[in-house]
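[Q] Does anyone have a clean structure-token version of this?
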Amino acid sequence: MRKIELLAPAKDLEAAIAAVDHGADAVYMGGARFGARRAAANSVGDVARAAEYAHRYGARLYAALNTVIFDDELAEAEAVARELIAADVDALIVQDMALRAMALPVELHASTQAGCMTGEDAAFLQGCGFARVILERALSLEEIRAIRRAAPQVDLECFVHGAICVGYSGRCFLSRSVSARSGNRGECSQPCRLPYDLTDAAGRTVIAGKHLLSVRDLDLSQRLEELMDAGVTSFKIEGRLKDVRYIKNVVSYYRDRLDEILSRRREDYSRSSCGRSEREFTPDPAKSFTRGATEYMFDGKRAGVASFDTPKAVGEYVGRVTGLVRGGFRMEGASALAAGDGICAVSAAGVAGTNVNRVEGGVVEPNRMAGITVGADIYRNYDHRFAQAVDRSRTRRTIGVRARVAMSTGGVGLRLTDEEDVEVNVWRAASLSEATGSVDMVETVRRVMRKCGDTIFRMEEVLASGGYIFAPASLLAEVRREGLEALLRARMSRPRQHVIVADDGTARYPRQKVSRYENVTNRVAAEFYRRHGAVEIEPALECAASTVGERVMVSSYCIRREIGECLRGRTTLRGDLYLRHGASRYRLQFDCERCIMSLVDCGAARRK
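[A] Here you go.
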């Protein structure tokens, strides 16, 4: 039976615990340094506590060390890696091949920052001993299938939900072109979410002030079985900078989707951890941060994936404004709103946000009326009642246990077996006598044993023998407590499966040249590529003083395709096109054969 994993993000220890409680099979979080989300760094102690909590349920904890590393940081990077290994993480997620070359005693996952987009890339990483390859978000289902055929042994991890980097991961230097902040160093300033003017070679404005690089958020929740059949083994939720409420809601939603698939249709798969999460809210990803859902390039390259009007989360559609009154407005669907909700009004004038003070008699009274006009569409980006339900939910994840209790005049024996067949036996010697006729000891045993309290266990079955023996309830409770403690110790002491493969140097890099866009930023990584057959290694663009004249983004997303001006069809836009924001100006390159778009930094001399 094949295992399938639901992988959740965690900004910190609180988020990691929430992710596990709400059904994650694995969690990924950053260490103190060298993570691609510097704002989501964690102490080794917190990573260790998160790992210990996950391991109770057979879940896994992955630590992200997925930035590029400079020569003077190699020793520190190795020290950080070994500290995380000592903290009992199950794998390290890495981009820089220097970490692969350090022979670390841990399972290694090739980050999406490593830029795996083809079968030959995946086969190379598999040959270098990576246990898992994390796929680029822009891949289609057919491309994922091709990667699986080329690399049949490595685990494939695929993003299924959350924000999309419009540029290929690990190959984007847009942030680096406007500031010292670099996505490859964990400090992306997200210039792709800014408004741009689209201009032609003569400087004429084609589109003004739109978020032309801002794409919607990924949602592949309806395509999970196709991904399973394509060979994906881990479904990844994006969001290491998201709050705990997002984690609880989105993880719960995907847990429900996967459980339905596994229980109703796919007996050839099972989840990779155990336990049942019980909560007091119905998950709905539309009520957490989203820029609108898209399946992006899953079915091939297509238009309709961008969000030109705003890079922010406008939320779920509620209705249209039908009239204005003093201090408020009337709308279709007003009853859906409540005091405390956050709303966005979207009209030709733009997007305006406010919150609801009161809803009465079909009239919505917001905190501000600015931007709210007749005909404006109203979206709710914060549902106060739903947020309260999530925050107040008494969510527990428990593991099912079967108990066999045997009583005799010499004492009480207890055998506990959990849902993964972990078993313990406890014996408590005691001088016991026969029960009187009025005492139903079997029912007493069942009642006492079912009380698992605040442990992680849930008693599903209690079988008792020796019902003619009287055992005090206090003694039975002590035996139960001792047994559950022993069962938890037994679970935690089990050897966990890790795929740790040494790199024997026989895998051949699929190209002779390692380009500057692949960011070899240290001598150890350079030697790694030479050992694997690379002839030329260009100086990393990440280390260059300037990106002027360089390609700073490559993307499967295409502005021409998005606005209906594809060069393969009829177009009114000929010649070069440019994006401009303030002093920044980029020339667009279109490779129609491969159907990709690139941005080239035009340089300060050409900026106005």
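[Q] Thanks! Anything notable?
[A] The longest helix spans residues 244-264.
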